[in-house]
Input
Amino acid sequence: MADLLQVSGERRVSLLGGEPSLHPDFVDFVLYLIERNIEVSVFTNGILSESTLEKVKEHLTVITPGPLNFVCNLNDPEQTRGSAQATRRVHQFLSIMGPWTSVGFNIYRLDFRLEFICDLVSRYGMKRHLRLGIAHPVPGQKNCYIHPKDIGQVIQRLYSYRNLLERFRIKPGLDCGFPICRFSDEQLGWLYRLTGQAGFGCAPAIDISPDMHVYCCFPFSQFHRRSIFDFDSLGQVRDYYAELLAKVREELPGIYDECDGCVHLQEGVCAGGGSCQILSRFVDEAPVRLPEIESELQELRLPS
Output
């Protein structure tokens, strides 16, 4: 994989799971990739075993933040209760790796809270960047997600935390799936003033699994899954899935009816929401898609 990254001209890689720290060679993988001059971002829940945490403390704290970064995906301890042991381990991890770590938070309910994030960022000297994602549907599965009609409520809820985020100097970064049309001008102005940028895209975020299969992103993990050995570079992989997503959007350009003809979509400012939201609608509709899409949808359709 390191050879493929370098041949492709890639200088960054993310290690995800599941939980990547469960692998017995996790620390060795990180050290090896950094030795190859590849920047590493580790997505973790922070619940590391005592032995792994000791290895992390011994070998990874000597690496400056930059080549190595962690994104700790946190849940609200009140709304998503975990065990006392799991909470203790998260705090142990943050007490050691706080300066290397930013917060990832996935929004799956409309009454989400952010107070606990501000507390942890301040307490452990974490990076003041908050990676915000919307829980998307996984086509062919029944998972908890935010419906497109409710995204405006999510944005309003986020905006209600503007004073708290500014006080703690925490900059929210939007993951894919946020459509620009659900932001008011006031909300957009606040976001740009606080962060200096905002993205409303949806592009292939290439995932490669341990069995050497590649797919577009997690919600598309069973849609046109291919062997990485079918490609000569990651550029070819991105082109393949970009073309596939374009075909998905040929019939339905965005998650709202008004996306058809939207100037923001036409000019590339906004992608029109998440492609997985569109594909999820296709799964429940009549089999009338393009053959290269419909053949895969048949495998995703749930039995009635």
Notes: Residues 234-251 form the longest helix (18 residues).
